[in-house]
Amino acid sequence: MTGFEKLNEEKVFKDPVHRYIHVRDRLIWELIGTPEFQRLRRIRQLGTTFLTFHGAEHSRFGHSLGVYEIARRVIDIFKSRGDWDDSETMLSLCAALLHDVGHGPFSHSFEKVFGTNHEQFTQKIILGDTEIHRVLAQVSPDFPKKVADVIGKTYENRLVVSLISSQIDADRMDYLLRDAYFTGVSYGHFDMERIWRVMRPVGDQIVFKSSGMHAVEDYIMSRYQMYWQVYFHPVTRSAEVILTQILHRAKRLYNEGFSFKNVPLQMVSLFEGKMSLKDYLRLDESVIMYYFQVWQDEEDEILRDLCSRFMNRRLFKYMQLSKDQLYADEELSGAFREAGIDPEYYLEVDSSSDCPYDFYRPGEEEERRPIQLKMPDGSLHELSRESDVVGAITGKRRTDHKLYFPKDMVLSLPDDLPAKKRIIELLHI
Amino acid sequence: MLEDHAKIAAIIKQAGVIAGRKKLQKMIYILQTMGFPFHETFHFNFFGPHSDELTMQLEELCNFGFLLEHPDEESDGITYRYRLSEAGEGFIGHYKEILPDVRNMTEKLSGESASFLELVSTLLYFDQIPGESANEKVRALDRPFSDKEIGRARVYIADLQAERADLSFSK
What we know:
Chain A: GO terms for molecular function: dGTPase activity. The complex is a heterodimer. By secondary structure, chain A is an alpha+beta fold. Chain A folds into two domains: 6-184, Orthogonal Bundle (Hypothetical protein af1432); 234-354 and 400-427, Growth Hormone, Chain: A. Chain A has helices at residues 26-32, 35-38, 60-80, 89-98, 107-114, 118-127, 131-137, 143-151, 158-164, 170-183, 192-198, 213-231, 234-255, 268-271, 277-282, 285-294, 301-312, 328-338, 343-346, 383-386, 388-395, 407-411, 418-427, and strands at 6-15, 19-25, 199-202, 205-209, 317-320, 348-351, 372-374, 380-382, 401-405. In chain A, strand 3 (199-202) and strand 4 (205-209) form a beta hairpin. The model of chain A has no long low-confidence stretch (mean pLDDT 94). Chain B is of the alpha+beta class. Chain B has a single domain, classed as Arc Repressor Mutant, subunit A, CATH 1.10.10. Chain B has helices at residues 3-15, 21-33, 52-64, 86-93, 103-110, 114-127, 134-140, 147-170; strands at 18-19, 43-45, 48-50, 67-74, 77-84. Chain B has a three-stranded antiparallel sheet. Chain B has a two-stranded antiparallel ribbon with strand order 2-3. In chain B, strand 4 and strand 5 (77-84) form a beta hairpin. The longest helix of chain B is centred in the last third of the chain and has 24 residues, at 147-170. Chain A binds chain B through residues 111, 117, 119, 123, 152-154, 156, 158, 204, 323, 326-327, 329, 349, 351-354, 356-357, 359, 361, 363-369, 397, 399, 401, and chain B through 1-2, 5, 20-22, 25, 41, 43-47, 50, 52-57, 59-60, 62-65, 76-80, 87, 91, 94, 114-115, 118, 126, 129, 137, 140-142.
């Protein structure tokens, strides 16, 4: 029986964001040791961002530990003030640790192409035939389900859910600081400890003392800057576009009976749309990068080229799309086809809505929960109504659409080809 | 190029005006669960299924001038009303062949309150989770829904599903 037994000796992980991550509970220690959790070491936190910011090689393993550590410290603060029901502590810590356990390699692209869903896999890993399930079930038969409910945001105690998943939660606080650290950018920082100190559980939500508004403003600015400077960086998006096209191409070739020199055995169930949990858990970025490497020698010209682009960072260029250019793709696609370049794989629009996470929008009443400030008289006020800085960011809409294409391929077309001239005109290159 | 955006714009056109972002979120989720081709990713939040992707698509459509957004200050906060602009008509005109014609269902959904659609979409959300009793879960989540409302929502879902089945048959 593991239960809530303490370890004989505290374990620590040295961590660049939190300095130390402390593990005192045997349950947490055993979860970290499971193969499903260790797999997260082989999945990068930021997918293709390492092709833009070379430091961004950090994994979901480190992030998951970081989220656990933040949850642990915030709970300690709440407990010291008598604001926390201790019977929910271990559930919250397990959910914090496991919240991303269902992520696969390059999740976003995979989900787009194969219709997989990392959140569903998180549920399956926690509830299915896995080591993680066995460790959790030692607490009680219904404990894995409770952990899954917290992560799925359907747990009855909304305060526990808010800690892991809300507008200012342990997940976001960790990834903003961690991603800023590993990308090397200087604008993702905010005073996390100050935010912890002004967090107040009120009913079933966490609100912030109004005296800490400036720390919260910094956090919102950090989200804003990180979105535009890191998460939605056009070079990263270009790599993502190519990655997605590789997956589309490989899937189509497989379904058309193409004879691969290097048969992607680990991806067959994915191509056939019947991926089991066991198959999913065997996939990681090492496996995918291996196929991309060997597919550079495949007979199929498109697959070969796209893989070579991804592996050697020969990415697509882009042009900003205005409203008037939205319908240019019909003419462009025609010119591409005429030039012998398949537009299905070499012309792609990427929009801000393809990478939507981390915008703060207060929204309408009951659309989603906004950030609330607790005023000295005890009333709650939505952040953007009190803060000019946040009001300015949330009031001004900024969206973006770019068209990605292989400029080098276009320029290498024969000069006397009429389609080349048309493409150059349409793409302004 | 922007097929998913065009589908959202088409739903707004079919409804005429959609009063509220929350209502639109729930409408698209419900249509998605009824098998119509909407690809937005939804997560559960405190007020039922919600898609950040859809929020951004709405912003993008407004920025392009394809949707007109009108904020109404009401006693319980702001409600944003959406309708298609003239430019939006031109936009969806490029995507005629991929737009689902679900006018009857859209009008039916649009005529309900956002709160009722929250209940309907929440029940549909939990119906998809194996081993979950959706009705019990909704009661446990402590949202202000009575047994009578849950019963009405169940009848409403059955009607939508029957209507959906008729649409498939007529195709």
